[in-house]
Amino acid sequence: MSDQIQFIVEKLNQEPFRKNYNLITFDSLESVQLLQLLNDVLGEIDPKHAVDIREELPEQTAKRMLSLLGILKYKPPGNISDLSAFRQGLVTGSKPVIHPVLHWLLQRTNELKKRAYLARFLVKLEVPAEFLQDDTVADINKQYEELMEAFKNLHKECEQLKTSGLSTAEIRRDISAMEEEKDQLVKRVERLKKRVETVQNHQRMLEIARQLRLEKEREESLAQQKQEQKNQLFHAEQRLQRAQLQLKEMHHAVVDSKPESLMKKLEEEINFNSYLVTEKIPRELECKKNSAYFLQKVVAEPAMSQSDLNVLEIKINEVNAEMNQLIEKRMMKYEPIDSKFSMYRQQASIISRKKEAKAEELQAAKEEMSSTERQMLQKTNQAHELEGSEVLKGDEFKHYVNKLRSKNTFYKKKRLEIAEITAEYGILQRTEELLKQRHEAIQQQLQSIEDKKGISGYSYTQEELERVSAVKSEMDEMKGRTLDNMSEMVKKLNAMVAEKKASLAPVIKELRQLRQKCQELTQECDEKKIQYDSCAAGLESNRSTLEQEVKGLLEECAQEESNYHYINCMKRNLEIQLQRAKEEMKAYVSPDPQERRKAIREQYTRMILEQENLGKKLREKQKAVRESHGPNMKQIKMWQDVEQLMECKRECFLKQQNQTAIGQVIQEGGKDRLVL
After folding, report:
1. Which portions of this protein are annotated as coiled-coil regions (predicted)?
2. Count of other CB atoms within 10 angstroms of residue 423
3. Distance between CA 676 and CA 673 in Å, rounded?
4. CA 576 to CA 581: how far, in whole Å?
5. What is the spatial distance between Cα 218 and Cα 359, in angstroms, rounded to a whole number?
6. What is the pLDDT of residue 646?
7. Could you write out the DSSP letters of every residue in 322-359?
8. For residue 579, what are the domain limits?
9. Which of 92, 123, 154 is the last residue of a domain?
10. What's the sign of the alpha-carbon dihedral 280, 282, 288, 290?
11. DSSP string, 74-141
12. Are 530 and 595 in the same domain?
């Protein structure tokens, strides 16, 4: 009990209650305060119960608390067997009733919160049957049950999402990464657009590429439609072949059989199908319905904890033990006629089981036969596709095998060539990827170097110059210009590049000065940061030492406070004991005999005398039982012998009756023969 109270006090001192109780203050709470405390805990589990109990009647408070405890599946401990006593203790705020309830609630607060939340939506409202006769009420009830099932499914999905490990931080990181990739792709598209805009007739080329993509998509859709039509044609041919095969089998059955055999076969099929329809399938359907009903009941009930499962297992074991005892009693008390009936029942059950097993075997054989027929149809279809509708024999088969061997060698040779070409293609593709990666890396490195040198766009300018020069050369070739004009254009371009370099030279010098200044500021910032870190470390160490001292003083204060309360309790107990001792001495010394009888010594003396008298009587009774034990056992043995003797006489009498009956039957049979 002390551990239980200590656990309650610890939980109440934590979030979200923050009561600041100790063992003494909690133990000194009055009944109304205890009830309010219990109501606060229930209000934390279910916010609907966060009310002031002084504003409602005690019966209403007890009814409300009992209803919530019933929903939470609380069971009173073993020492409270009477529900009315538990209800009365809950109304009056009795400590032996309230303390176990608080301990049970505070042990599993999160689980009970979830159960109370689910109970608001899953506790089914019981509608009377006469109200369900109304169509409107029945429709609303059905809609209510469907909404309840939808809530169950949504709650399960929510729990699965909570336990799946997905977090908003990871989703945000993925979104940011995708946005960065999107920005990079947009930049690449813009760069490609700028490069394409310089090409002649780029709009016409883009339109042609778009038309090509549309035609490829149309080609893929047409190929998919063609494949679907081929599959439909193949399935239709299979159905036709199956129908032809069935027709052929029916023709053979009609030709080779007689009407009597056909009727017999049909009767067997009718008997088998009627057995399936009338006995087997309804029984299986009933079993499925029962299992579905029990599963629905299990799903409709709120979530069960491990303690509830343990209680159910104990009940199941008790019921099984009771059933076994009843079966044993019945087997011990059966009569001969019942034994004959039981024998017939066993034979009937064995025959029914054999019948079910044979029916299942027959059904499995039919399924196997249908599967083999489907395989045979597939094999025949494959043979038709390979243009081999007839089985080859003799020289034709040898010729066919030689042809297959030659085709196999040719196939292997071509496959090796394809493998070599595929390997070479993979190597070339990998080489192309590596060269592209290297080119991109060089481009990025060149761009970073240009940014560092302060001449960003130089490589792009150079590419533009090269492109301009290439365009110029093409135009020169087309127009037949001379090499002198090309050299002059190159000289002009070189002059332009020199001018650009000359104009960028002062900017580069200024950039160098700024870099040097940036290095000096960075060095100064590092020194200041080192000083700040050392100062912060010193302050942090001082703060930690002060926190430790404060913590030690608080612990010492709490220890002294607990010692103070303990000494006060011991002092109070000693005062009570001293008072009782004074009252006992006063009653013992008092000349009044009535006062002396109230003394504890006199009471214990009377009790000792009563127990001594009782022990004396029990010893005398034990002595009498020991003296009569031997004769009683002999008498029991004699009665058992008499019972065995009577049983033997009864068996002899029954045997004699059976023998006389058999002799009479034999004599009557002999007389009948003589008469004949």
Report:
1. 137-246, 309-382, 483-563
2. 10
3. 5
4. 9
5. 55
6. 92
7. HHHHHHHHHHHT--HHHHHHHHHHHHHHHHHHHHHHHH
8. 481-589
9. 123
10. negative
11. ----TT---HHHHHHHHHHT-HHHHHHHHHHHHHTHHHHHHHHHHHHHHS-----TTGGGSHHHHHHH
12. no
All residues at 6 or more sequence positions from 598 whose CB lies less than 8 Å from its CB, including other chains = 587
Shared domain for 494 and 568, answered yes or no, is yes
Domain contains 453: no
Q: How many CA atoms lie within 13 A of 574 on its CB side?
A: 6
Amino acid at 155: H
Which tokens go with 102?
A: 């608080």
Contact 90, 66 (CB under 8 A): yes
Per-residue H/E/C for 138-193: HHHHHHHHHHHHHHHHHHHHHHHHHHCCCCHHHHHHHHHHHHHHHHHHHHHHHHHH
Q: Is 503 exposed, middle or buried (0-12, 13-18, 19+ CB in 10 A)?
A: exposed
Nearest to residue 296, comparing CAs of 129, 68, 124, 126? Answer: 124
Say yes or no: 498 and 607 in one domain: no
What Å distances lie between residue 660 and 337, 541, 655, 671, 674, CA to CA?
A: 22, 115, 9, 17, 21
Interhelix angle 336-385/259-275, rounded to 10 degrees, is 110
Distance CA 509, CA 455 (A): 12
- Considering only CA atoms, which of 565, 568, 554 is closest in space to residue 23? 565
- Burial label for 53, CB within 10 Å (0-12, 13-18, 19+), is buried
With a CB cutoff of 8 Å and minimum separation 6, the contacts of 374 are none
547 located within any domain: yes
Same domain, yes or no: 598 and 541? no
- Is residue 124 within 8 Å of 300, Cβ to Cβ? yes
Please report, in angstroms and rounded to a whole number, the separation of the first and last CA atoms in the chain.
Answer: 98
Give every residue of the chain whose pLDDT is below 50, as ranges. 79-80, 335-337, 389, 391, 672-676
Distances from the Cα of 663 to the Cα of 65, 73, 256, 660, 673, angstroms: 82, 73, 61, 5, 15
Residue owning tokens 């050392």: 534
pLDDT at 664: 64
The closest of 63, 43, 51, 34 to 116, measured between CA atoms, is 43
Nearest C-alpha neighbor of 31 from the set 103, 105, 89:
89
Cα 203 to Cα 196: distance, rounded to the nearest angstrom:
9
111 and 63 in one domain?
Answer: yes
Our count of domains for the chain comes to 3
Alpha-carbon distances of 36 from 31, 32, 59, 368, 420, rounded to whole Å = 9, 6, 14, 72, 86
Indicate if 18 and 94 belong to the same structural domain. Answer: yes
Other beta carbons within 10 angstroms of residue 665's beta carbon come to: 10
CB 239 within 8 A of CB 381: no
Query: 605 and 544 in one domain?
Result: no
Query: Which of 534, 568, 589 delimits the end of a domain?
Result: 589
Q: Residue 115 belongs to a domain with what CATH number?
A: 1.10.418.70
Q: Which residues contact 206 (CB under 8 A, 6 or more apart)?
A: 196
State both tokens at 467: 């492109």
Residue 599 lies in a domain: yes
Q: CA 150, CA 161: separation in Å to the nearest integer?
A: 17
Distance CA 242, CA 226 (A): 24
pLDDT value, residue 256 = 57
Evaluate whether residue 501 is within a structural domain. Answer: yes
Q: Output the pLDDT for position 648.
A: 92
